[in-house]
Design goal:
Elements (H helix, E strand, L loop, with lengths): L2 H23 L2 H17 L10 H22 L18 H16 L2 H11 L5 H8 L3 H25 L3
Helix pairs in contact: 1-2, 1-3, 1-5, 2-3, 3-6, 4-7, 5-7, 6-7
Length: 167
């Protein structure tokens, strides 16, 4: 693909794709690597994304696959030294939003992986249930129910926080 086309895709979808990769990998560096791998492959790709149909769903599916592949590679290399701590946040936010963001990340971490993936794709990826279904190889109805159950659990977690001050 042409560099300008890949740059346009990154400008439009990059942040959402990175958030999705971060929610799957739970590691900023690995998420960045997955995103770099996907966009690097796009640059090397001869044709455009017309054959892929839904470009957004294709990108999310590609990021998911790249993230899972990198996680598998990491698991196979357990003998290597594990990264200590968490890298600095990619996006700086005002202090008053930091606690809210941390609470949201903690609540997302408590969701089953299937529900978390769908919630992240719907909210940050702005995908339809059809697009989520295509990206995760599930039916749109399954995507919708996972989203509904995930959001219900998030609402419960945040209502407990507002009532008791912590989960």
């Amino acid at each position: 693909m042409e560099t300008s086309a890949v740059a346009a895709l990154y400008a439009e979808h990059g942040r959402g794709l990175l958030l999705y990769a971060r929610s799957t990998a739970r590691d900023d560096g690995l998420a960045e690597d997955a995103l770099q791998e996907v966009f690097g492959r796009l640059l090397a790709r001869k044709g455009g994304l017309a054959a892929a149909g839904n470009a957004r769903a294709y990108l999310y599916e590609s990021v998911r696959n790249a993230t899972l592949n990198l996680l598998r590679t990491r698991r196979r290399a357990r003998g290597r030294e594990e990264k200590a701590g968490r890298s600095r946040p990619l996006f700086t936010e005002p202090e008053d939003l930091l606690a809210e963001r941390e609470a949201l990340e903690a609540a997302l971490d408590q969701l089953p992986e299937e529900q978390r993936e769908v919630v992240v794709l719907k909210v940050w990826g702005d995908l339809t249930f059809e697009g989520i279904g295509a990206a995760l190889a599930i039916s749109p109805n399954t995507a919708a129910s996972r989203y509904r159950y995930g959001m219900e659990k998030l609402r419960q977690a945040f209502s407990e926080v507002s009532e008791h001050g912590k989960p």
